[in-house]
Amino acid sequence: MKIKLSFLGAAQNVTGSRHFLEANGVRILVDCGLYQEREFRARNWEKFPVPPKSIDAVLLTHAHLDHCGLIPKLVREGFQGRIYCTDATADITRIILLDSAKIQEEDAKFKRKRHKREGRKGPFPEIPLYTTEDANSCFPLFSTVKYEQPVRIADGVEASFHDAGHILGASMIKVDIGRNGDKRSVLFSGDVGRWGKPILQDPSLFEEADYVLVESTYGDRIHDKNEDISRTLAEAINTAKRSGGKIIVPSFALERSQEVLYHLNDLLTKGRIPDVKVFVDSPMAVNVTDVFKKHTDLFDDEMIERLSKGNSPFHFPNLKMVRTVNESKAINMMRGTFIVIAGSGMCTGGRVKHHLVNNISKPNTAVLFVGYQAAGTLGRHIVDGAKEARILGKKYKVKARIIRIHGFSGHADRDELMRWLSGLKKPPKKVFVVHGEAEAAHNFADYLIEKNGWQVSVPKYHDTVILE
Ligand SMILES: [Zn+2]
Question: Ligand 1 centre and the CA of 68: distance in Å?
């Protein structure tokens, strides 16, 4: 029996997850993600290393763009097999891919115009990487699975999906290969979530696997466990209320917005914050929240108990979901203290920019950052303490209070990754450390070797290994 594994993305970097497994003549792609780091974005335009037509199936761990974002291109270029994932992942992926296609289309249009005006050519073609039509043609290929129920991918190849505790519907995938006693298993961690997070279940543990691919986004860091998210939120809101200011929360539409709602509802219910209105001003966040409402079976016990008492973080008297532009504009006319959760999370686009324009120069405003701010983004500029910010083409003085909450991370840190691996009763034949910047991945690999004495490697882009 010959099993070959190729690392076609998220190898010594964080985005573009894509692993290719060949076993018993069956060809499987695990994830097909978009590259988002500037230095690797050219790879999105490259020809697929494997002819899409020759791939039998895609196994999708979760709906984040760096895991699903190249599927429309794969399908357009000939992939005709099934795309296996959980129900919730299929629902959220649909929202994410349609949004991504729209951004690709708008970007191409904008670049065409700009390059024409400037009389030059950019590094990539001035056409969308994929269109809305391309995205729509993927959805009929989705084949949904349930957690813990193995599905037959082909003769002698079975896959099972297990809750990753990362975002709603996210999975760790175990692929079992072989027949008649000659068997191997390959475990793909996907993105490993965290223990004790609200709404979601804890990450699943595994007792055995021959080969393991483990992510390492925070493989050399430890999250601050003492940060009290509720207390920081409550303080920010109470202070803003006393001075009559507004609270702007730039937030990612998926998972983060729902988690912020969870905390706000909790604070309101316990009377720790005054009776202020909460707006979710992002059509995408509203759509994703609807998916959450549909998949209550995936919630953790605490959340299910909350719902059974009629207390939902996604439906409470002070909460208003905002879809239309007119409704969004109306928020800006309102006086007094309220909370607006709006995209994008790093203030690079979306409706949050309008709210910043209207409020960032007021000393009684609080801008509450709940997510990672990448270098070069408006969000990063603001959290780094800028006195002035350019928003929608105009400069504004930054007088608002800028507050950061770090504790929302959806990725396991080094100790949590070790906890996940500690479920294994005996050492795997080999562990491959993926999905981390080169330094984080190598540091985690070294740590794992030192602590457990296991066989560990950090593959490079395009590396191929034979799994004995
Ligand atoms: Zn993810």
Answer: 10
